[in-house]
Write a structure and sequence with these properties.
Blueprint lengths: L19 H32 L1 H11 L2 H28 L6 H26 L1
Helix pairs in contact: 1-2, 1-3, 3-4
Amino acid sequence: MSITRERPLSPHLQIYRPQLTSVLSVFHRLTGIFLSISCVGLSLWLISMALGEEAYAEFMKAVGGWGGWVFVTLLIFCVYYHLFNGIRHLFWDWGLGFSLRSVYASGWAVVALALGFSLLTVTLTF
């Protein structure tokens, strides 16, 4: 067997089946990035309000419609997901919930709570 033989490095993505824990970890990071970037939009919204009624109306016209609705809905989900997963991490910091069964149960609970609270918020808001 030759040492120079090309072999895939572990974990090889074509054969690796993502676990719930790894998917939730990556998603937690992505929601954090999305929330950070969306602070720019929130800042622009606040600036448009400070500049007066015309600037605010122009801003709302630019971001209105289905695109703005999708963005706000996604933002709401990201806030809830990041919040509930952060609470889950706080329990881990206290040394609680490290059994495999409770890790998966809390992971699914985070997803269910984030979806449920997002749907509730969107339903009550829009």
